[in-house]
């Protein structure tokens, strides 16, 4: 169903992928071990992983839709669709994944100065700098705007003191983007700034938190008289909430997209379940799985529709809250079904079904991180339905 | 590329349809028809024909507007919002799509009459309580140069007042679709007293004679003609049901903003906000499936089955939720006949069964997705 406009691009891309994507990178690895996160301390798990990243980065294919001058390939939405189709056609791994790509990048592209974009974006695209997110605090979860981490104006720099929590992969990140209270007198949404902080400096410490899934992707991060140069602010002083909200919509899309990665392009649930249950002969499970599959397909189409809408200039606005809510709740259901289908084989850590239990447990965070399902529903209720607060 | 966005033309069509229907066929109009026991407004249908709606799927050389399936869905969706009663689905979508599969002057003439609003059709497929075309038992026995039809059909939507019937029957080596006048000798129609107050019939065929000319498409090959027609009908019905969901939802959110209890608007209560927000999310997700079905039918009809079943399954589920939540959030008034919400609930239930229920379409999807 591709129009003529992208046929040439598709043919060229297909040739390029054949010539450049190493065999080992064609296993579509979605497992934690298969992901290349990049960063200063990144240790490639194979020569192929390194080669794949370098080749893609040289073409701008780690961030295909970013402008060329910032490290991308400047692809249009139609071309991006083709890119994704061709990548999945050969089952290619994503060459690089990171919060820099998914979250900071879009925020910088929207709010950053040209200098900031030139300085921060290309290293993200090349996988040289790994970012983490400093949003939540012990007292600021669903009430995110209640951040208390303090940023004092010291003339040529900000002095930062406070604690962040759920800073994913902070122990492996090079830089952190953080919400910091820079005006304690203003109403809570109006005294926050969005700052960029090098983690390799005095006064920044991080500690992993062990989770129910057995791994520690989340950390606590402490700031004690950490120094941030003045130019490392995105957007205006005390207007960081605008940046934060914009970034959150991308985070939500990422979570619902990842959760819904299943959806649309993802593998059919029936096929996965059939691997452990011959012919899926459990009628109750089968019926539940069919419903889950129907909803996955429809949510996948909704992701498509919103992308098409935003490209057509019809902003999807607060739709990201809807996608996040629907996508993550569905992903939890999906993993419940996969656990059921796995029976007792699924109950072992690294058992016959690999990390199925760990993945299942991990999905429980989907409807909490990036704004809980309840927060999403409240956003829809207020901003879309116009119900009184 | 098949964009999942309404084109400018489609947006205009929707706006125009909404403008027309708000004036000519608001829910109050349906109430009047229900109270009067009326199931067809011929003048309204004629107006729709004049706007090109009856001929939405009729080729231009037969006098149609030939706007395509996505456009038919747009019209159906707007009709659903105010529970418009018309033969749009049976005639303009299902019958027109079936006739389009057939070449020849006779089919072209029939299409022209559809576009002009001069003839209405009903599709007679169901024989039991569930939609199951492949399980059709009704017999069309070869008889001389023609056929002799014997059997029973039920839930023939628009069947009491339709001028013509598309009848699915079993012939020697398969299924055959017949296109016969509804008043042919041996056809006995009994009106079903439907919960949604629309036209539906139980029909008995007692030695009804049909000639080779009455066969639509080829003998023993009904599905060549019927399958595209069913898919178009299922997609348009899904669209109508999504309009119905939107209509019920609009009423409900409006009520949340004005109804006061405990001294405040009930829309301030988080329990209700979250129910309403969840419903909106479901409606949005279903809208994508419907748009996609229209796009697939227009661009790649051979491979549209999954998209169509997805649309119908989701629309069925969402409409059910919309009316259940609609009544619940309205409270007692939602249970009264004087209030419109009950109309939406009844229409949704009928739509849920017509042309395949949730399970029917879920099985189609399961087959396509490796279950």
Structure notes:
- The complex is a heterodimer of chains A (389) and B (371).
- Chain A contains eleven helices and eight strands.
- Chain A has helices at residues 7-20, 47-59, 77-89, 99-111, 114-125, 240-259, 269-276, 283-311, 319-342, 356-363, 373-384, and strands at residues 131-134, 150-153, 157-165, 175-181, 192-198, 204-209, 218-229, 233-234.
- A four-stranded mixed sheet of chain A has the order 1-4-5-8. A four-stranded antiparallel sheet of chain A has the order 2-3-7-6, with no helix packed on it.
- The longest helix of chain A has 29 residues, at 283-311.
- With 371 residues, chain B is α+β, with helices and mostly antiparallel strands.
- In chain B, strands 1-4-5-8 form a four-stranded mixed sheet, covered by helices on one side. A four-stranded antiparallel sheet of chain B has the order 2-3-7-6, with no helix packed on it. Chain B has a two-stranded antiparallel sheet with strand order 9-10.
- In chain B, strand 9 and strand 10 form a beta hairpin.
- In chain B, helix 4 runs parallel beside helix 7 and helix 9 packs antiparallel against helix 11 (358-368).
- Chains A and B meet through helix 7, helix 8, helix 9 and helix 11 of A and helix 7, helix 8, helix 9 and helix 11 of B.
């Amino acid at each position: 169903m591709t129009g003529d406009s992208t046929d040439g691009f598709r043919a060229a891309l297909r040739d390029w992928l054949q010539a450049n994507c190493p065999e080992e990178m064609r296993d579509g690895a979605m497992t934690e071990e298969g992901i290349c996160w990049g960063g200063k301390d990144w240790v490639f798990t194979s020569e192929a992983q390194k080669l794949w990243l370098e080749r893609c980065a040289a073409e701008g294919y780690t961030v295909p839709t970013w402008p060329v001058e910032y490290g991308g390939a400047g692809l249009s939405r139609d071309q991006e669709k083709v890119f994704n189709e061709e990548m999945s056609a050969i089952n290619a791994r994503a060459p690089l994944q990171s919060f820099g790509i998914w979250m900071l990048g879009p925020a910088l592209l929207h709010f950053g100065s040209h200098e900031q974009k030139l300085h921060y974006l290309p290293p993200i695209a090349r996988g040289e700098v790994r970012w983490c997110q400093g949003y939540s605090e012990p007292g600021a979860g669903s009430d995110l705007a209640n951040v208390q981490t303090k940023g004092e104006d010291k003339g040529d720099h900000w002095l930062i003191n406070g604690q962040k929590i759920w800073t994913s992969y902070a122990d492996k990140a090079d830089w952190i983007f953080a919400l910091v209270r820079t005006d304690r007198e203003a109403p809570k949404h109006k005294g926050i700034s969005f700052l960029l902080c090098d983690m390799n400096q005095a006064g920044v410490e991080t500690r992993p938190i062990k989770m129910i899934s057995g791994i520690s992707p989340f950390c606590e991060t402490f700031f004690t008289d950490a120094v941030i140069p003045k130019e490392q602010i995105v957007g205006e002083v005390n207007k960081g909430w605008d940046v934060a909200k914009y970034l959150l919509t991308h985070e939500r899309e990422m979570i619902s997209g990842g959760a819904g990665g299943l959806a649309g392009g993802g593998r059919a649930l029936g096929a996965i379940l059939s691997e452990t249950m011959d012919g899926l002969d459990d009628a109750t499970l089968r019926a539940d799985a069919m419903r889950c599959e129907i909803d996955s397909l429809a949510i996948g189409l909704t992701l498509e529709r919103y992308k098409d809408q935003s490209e057509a200039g019809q902003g999807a606005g607060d739709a990201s809250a809807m996608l996040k809510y629907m996508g993550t709740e569905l992903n939890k259901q999906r993993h419940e079904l996969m656990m059921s289908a796995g029976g007792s084989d699924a109950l072992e850590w690294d058992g016959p079904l690999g990390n199925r239990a760990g993945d299942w447990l991990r999905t429980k965070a989907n409807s909490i991180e990036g704004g809980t399902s309840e927060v999403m529903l409240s956003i829809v209720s207020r901003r879309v339905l116009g119900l009184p607060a | 590329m098949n964009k999942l966005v309404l084109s400018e033309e489609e947006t205009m069509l929707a706006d125009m349809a909404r403008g027309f229907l708000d004036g000519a066929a608001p829910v109050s109009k349906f109430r009047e028809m229900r109270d009067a026991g009326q199931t067809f407004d011929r003048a309204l249908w004629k107006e729709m024909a004049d706007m090109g709606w009856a001929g939405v799927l009729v080729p231009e050389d037969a006098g149609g507007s030939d706007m395509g399936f996505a456009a038919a869905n747009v019209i159906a969706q707007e009709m659903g919002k105010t529970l418009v009663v018309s033969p749009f689905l049976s005639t303009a979508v299902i019958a027109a799509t079936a006739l389009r599969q057939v070449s020849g002057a006779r089919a072209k003439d029939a299409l022209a009459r559809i576009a002009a609003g001069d003839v209405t059709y009903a599709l007679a497929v169901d024989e039991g309580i569930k939609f199951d075309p492949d399980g059709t038992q009704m017999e069309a026995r070869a008889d001389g140069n023609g056929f002799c039809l014997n059997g029973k059909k039920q839930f023939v939507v628009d069947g009491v007042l339709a001028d013509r019937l598309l009848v699915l029957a079993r012939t020697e080596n398969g299924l055959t679709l017949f296109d016969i006048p509804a008043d042919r000798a041996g056809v006995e129609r009994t009106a079903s007293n439907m919960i949604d107050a629309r036209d539906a019939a139980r029909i008995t065929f007692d030695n009804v004679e049909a000639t080779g000319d009455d066969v639509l498409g080829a003998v023993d090959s009904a599905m060549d003609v019927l399958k595209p027609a069913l898919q178009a009908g299922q997609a348009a019905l899904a669209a109508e049901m999504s309009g119905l969901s939107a209509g019920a939802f609009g009423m409900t959110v409006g009520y949340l903003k004005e109804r006061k209890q405990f001294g405040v608007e009930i829309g301030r209560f988080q329990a209700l906000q979250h129910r309403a927000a969840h419903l909106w999310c479901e409606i949005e997700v279903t809208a994508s499936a419907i748009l996609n079905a229209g796009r697939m039918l227009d661009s790649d009809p051979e491979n549209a089955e999954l998209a169509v079943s997805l649309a119908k399954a989701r629309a069925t589920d969402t409409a059910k939720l919309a009316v259940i939540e609609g009544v619940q959030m309205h409270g007692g008034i939602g249970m009264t006949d004087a209030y419109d919400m009950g109309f939406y609930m009844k229409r949704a239930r009928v739509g849920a069964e017509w042309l395949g229920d949730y399970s029917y379409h879920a099985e189609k999807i399961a087959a396509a997705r490796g279950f």
